[in-house]
Amino acid sequence: MEGIVEGEARGEARGEAKGSASQIIEIIENIMSELQCPLEKACKAAGKTVSEYRQSEQICGKV
Question: pLDDT for 9-62, tens place per residue?
Fold first, then answer.
């Protein structure tokens, strides 16, 4: 039973991380599209770094 609970907790944490990463990607891509600006400028406008954006891509399997 303990293993099941642990597995569920891990799955939930992964789901939350993927959801958060997905939001970061969506926000930054929307900024790039609306403002016709490069990734660096969009990240700055979103209060994120390019590194955070790239990590989000990896989490979501976009790379």
Answer: 788 878 888 999 999 999 999 999 999 999 999 999 999 999 999 999 999 997
Q: Which of 14, 26, 49, 21 is nearest to 34 (CA)?
A: 26
Token pair belonging to 62:
């976009």
pTM score, whole prediction: 0.82
CA dihedral 26, 31, 34, 38 (to 10 degrees): -120
How far from 31 is each of 21, 27, 52, CA to CA, in Å?
Answer: 16, 6, 15
Which pair of tokens denotes residue 59?
């989490």
H helices of 1-63, in order, are 2-35, 39-46, 50-60
